């Protein structure tokens, strides 16, 4: 099972968050405008204490009711302006930030499609899902709130402190005393919280993997009565996550405690000192009111620093996790063959449209087309422990144009691995594979995959209609679809409630295993590929259906170069020749009857075939 890859060396929060700039750049004007509006709104809040001072020392001291009403009107207008500006800020950022989140998600999805199969073998799906959902949501929240408010609150605190110092510098210094311990607490908090935030987000990924596996494997879990042990495993993981979240909450509570308590004590001290000075006449009552109102207006900007820092830390972790995937190297792009790709696409499209007959196809045989050839191919999985033997070693195999070759070997001998090398789902470790004389690594993948169609033993269907699933393999319309369904003996599709428009449900699980296999086979043949790679595609069929599929396939295979992994003699008989894979090497090639006669290992595999399959069919 893939395990969570360990995180790389941590970078500073700011350096990590700066990586978001390419995505934020298109909406920077709105974000800056919104931040400026928020700063103005916040500073308007700081004007209110000055109006209060004017009212206390002026109209209230002079017992002037008209002046008091005027002051109240000013306060009302200032409050309204503050509220309207904050509302405007929110309206300005909502749409662009949803756009940033959508763009980042789309980029991640595109990148995931381009990453090699080896990457997906390595990464648990839950880790990828949590990056595409929870992490991106955290980033949107960071851009909408902490990013702006760390700036806005910073400016507000600065302006507020200046106003207080101007009102009365001794009281201002009293208020400033807690600044040093608060700053030290913030630095310590940031360090500790970053580790906890990373752990929590990774644990969310692990939990997502467990949920996904349990949902997809619900039949096995129920079938084996494993729901209790699965629930226990889930509880353990969610218990760990709960522990990490509580640790985060404790850290947050500590910083909030310091950030709230120390400034409150300073305000209390300033109140006492100010009251004494008003009593002895060295300070006006209005100044004290203004001073304390400003200090109280700064409470929220100061108090919020704790959770704004926490949210920024979580956003930095989310950014790091996002770019861990985005920094992975996608499948290498071939640099040659662009023109050939165009020609191949045009050819495939024309064939699909039925405008090219078989004789119009590029010629095989004497003109350089020599089918599918493995030249000294060796392969080892990138994550295999060092020192282990390669799965495939010095494979030399020639499948002639129009020929079909069955690949037979014991379980685990590397048949699936070998078939995966042809469409470059894995890259050969050494040696090369050629299609009609051209090295597959020199072909653009698009061309390669338009010429080679695959069907695996485990048929994967998508949440789409039957027709859409089949036409994913190429082809251009109803005629192709009908022909492919006929070849794969998948006429059952017409009997479904909405015929070929019937939705097959998640992973096609609303269909039987044999039905899914037949649709996967139809998908492989619908584009009339030049090369077919079939990994035991008939294993789930009953003998009668298998015979009918084989008869239809034989007609298709008459023109197509095919490599077919086979376990049963009936499937082997589809092929012109058979190759035996043993110990990572091709140890024999010949017709079924020749190998049956001359090769004891092959004879043993074929005679034990029905028994061998039982294990799979159970
Ligand atoms: N992603 C992977 N990473 C590492 N090793 C792998 C991976 N996939 C398969 N293997 C190993 O490669 C070997 C060949 O596996 P492969 O699936 O190709 O065998 P097979 O002949 O197709 O088996 P079967 O007949 O059971 O389908 C096995 O030892 C398997 O454990």
From TrEMBL:
Q: What is the protein name stated in its UniProt record?
A: ABC transporter ATP-binding protein/permease
User: Gene3D superfamilies this protein is in?
Assistant: ABC transporter type 1, transmembrane domain, P-loop containing nucleotide triphosphate hydrolases
PANTHER family from the xrefs? ATP-BINDING CASSETTE SUB-FAMILY B MEMBER 10, MITOCHONDRIAL (PTHR43394:SF1), ATP-DEPENDENT PERMEASE MDL1, MITOCHONDRIAL (PTHR43394)
Q: Where are the transmembrane segments?
A: 31-56, 68-88, 141-163, 169-189, 251-276
Which organism is this entry from?
Streptomyces pimonensis
Q: How does it sit in the membrane?
A: Multi-pass membrane protein
Compartments it resides in? Cell membrane
Main localization of the protein described in the UniProt heading: membrane
Keyword Transferase included in the entry's annotation: no
Domain ABC transporter, chain residue ranges per copy: 372-608
InterPro entries tied to this protein? AAA+_ATPase, ABC1_TM_dom, ABC1_TM_sf, ABC_transporter-like_ATP-bd, ABC_transporter-like_CS, P-loop_NTPase, Type_1_exporter
Record SUPFAM superfamilies: ABC transporter transmembrane region (SSF90123), P-loop containing nucleoside triphosphate hydrolases (SSF52540)
Q: Which GO terms describe its molecular function?
A: ATP binding
Sorted keywords for this record are: ATP-binding, Membrane, Nucleotide-binding, Transmembrane, Transmembrane helix
**Where in the numbering of this chain does the ABC transmembrane type-1 domain appear?**
32-314
Query: Is the keyword ATP-binding in the record?
Result: yes
Tell me which positions the record assigns to the signal sequence. none
């Amino acid at each position: 099972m893939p395990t969570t890859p360990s995180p790389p060396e941590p970078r500073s929060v700011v350096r990590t968050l700066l990586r978001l700039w390419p995505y934020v750049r298109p909406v920077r004007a709105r974000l800056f405008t919104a931040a400026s509006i928020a700063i103005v709104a916040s500073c308007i809040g700081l004007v209110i204490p000055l109006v209060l001072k004017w009212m206390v020392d002026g109209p209230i001291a002079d017992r002037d009711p008209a002046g008091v009403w005027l002051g109240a009107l000013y306060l009302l207008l200032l409050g309204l302006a503050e509220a309207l500006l904050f509302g405007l800020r929110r309206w300005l950022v909502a749409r662009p930030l949803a756009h940033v989140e959508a763009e980042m998600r789309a980029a991640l999805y595109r990148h995931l499609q381009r990453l090699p199969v080896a990457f997906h073998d390595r990464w648990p799906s839950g880790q990828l899902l949590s990056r595409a959902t929870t992490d991106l949501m955290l980033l949107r929240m960071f851009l909408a709130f902490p990013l702006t408010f760390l700036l806005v609150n910073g400016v507000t605190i600065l302006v507020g402190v200046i106003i207080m110092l101007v009102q009365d510098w001794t009281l201002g210094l009293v208020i400033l005393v807690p600044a040093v311990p608060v700053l030290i607490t913030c630095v310590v908090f940031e360090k500790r919280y970053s580790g906890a935030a990373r752990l929590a987000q990774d644990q969310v990924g692990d939990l997502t993997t467990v949920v996904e596996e349990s949902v997809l494997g619900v039949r096995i879990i129920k079938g084996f009565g494993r729901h209790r042990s699965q629930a226990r495993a889930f509880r353990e993981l969610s218990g760990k996550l709960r522990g990490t979240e509580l640790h985060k909450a404790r850290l947050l509570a500590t910083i909030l405690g310091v950030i709230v308590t120390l400034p409150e004590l300073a305000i209390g001290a300033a109140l006492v000192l100010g009251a004494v000075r008003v009593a002895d006449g060295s300070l006006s009552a209005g100044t004290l009111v203004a001073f304390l109102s400003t200090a109280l207006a700064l409470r929220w900007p100061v108090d919020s620093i704790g959770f704004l820092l926490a949210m920024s830390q979580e956003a930095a972790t989310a950014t790091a996790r996002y770019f861990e995937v985005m920094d992975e190297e996608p499948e290498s792009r071939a640099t040659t063959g662009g023109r050939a790709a165009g020609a191949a696409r045009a050819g495939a499209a024309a064939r699909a449209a039925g405008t090219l007959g078989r004789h119009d196809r590029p010629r095989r045989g004497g003109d350089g087309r020599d089918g599918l050839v493995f030249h000294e191919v060796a392969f080892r999985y990138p994550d295999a422990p060092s020192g282990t033997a390669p799965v495939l070693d010095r494979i030399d195999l020639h499948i002639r144009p129009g020929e079909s070759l069955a690949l037979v070997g014991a379980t685990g001998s590397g048949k699936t691995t070998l078939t995966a090398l042809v469409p470059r789902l894995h890259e050969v470790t050494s040696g090369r594979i050629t299609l009609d004389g051209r090295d597959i690594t020199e072909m653009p993948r698009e061309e390669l995959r338009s010429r080679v169609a695959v069907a695996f033993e485990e048929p994967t269907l998508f949440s789409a209609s039957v027709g859409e699933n089949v036409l994913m393999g190429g082809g251009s319309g109803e005629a192709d679809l009908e022909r492919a369904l006929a070849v794969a003996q998948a006429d059952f599709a017409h009997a479904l409630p909405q015929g070929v428009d019937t939705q097959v449900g998640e992973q096609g699980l609303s269909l039987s295993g044999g039905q899914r296999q037949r649709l996967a086979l139809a998908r492989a043949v619908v584009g009339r590929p030049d090369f077919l790679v079939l990994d035991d595609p008939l294993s789930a069929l009953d003998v009668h259906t298998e015979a009918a599929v084989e008869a239809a396939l034989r007609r298709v295979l008459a023109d197509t170069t095919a490599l077919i992994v086979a376990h049963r003699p009936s499937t082997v008989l589809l092929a012109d020749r058979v190759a035996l894979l043993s110990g990572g090497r091709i140890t024999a090639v010949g017709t079924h009857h020749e190998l049956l006669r001359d090769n004891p290992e092959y004879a043993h595999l074929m005679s034990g075939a029905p028994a061998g399959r039982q294990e799979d069919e159970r």
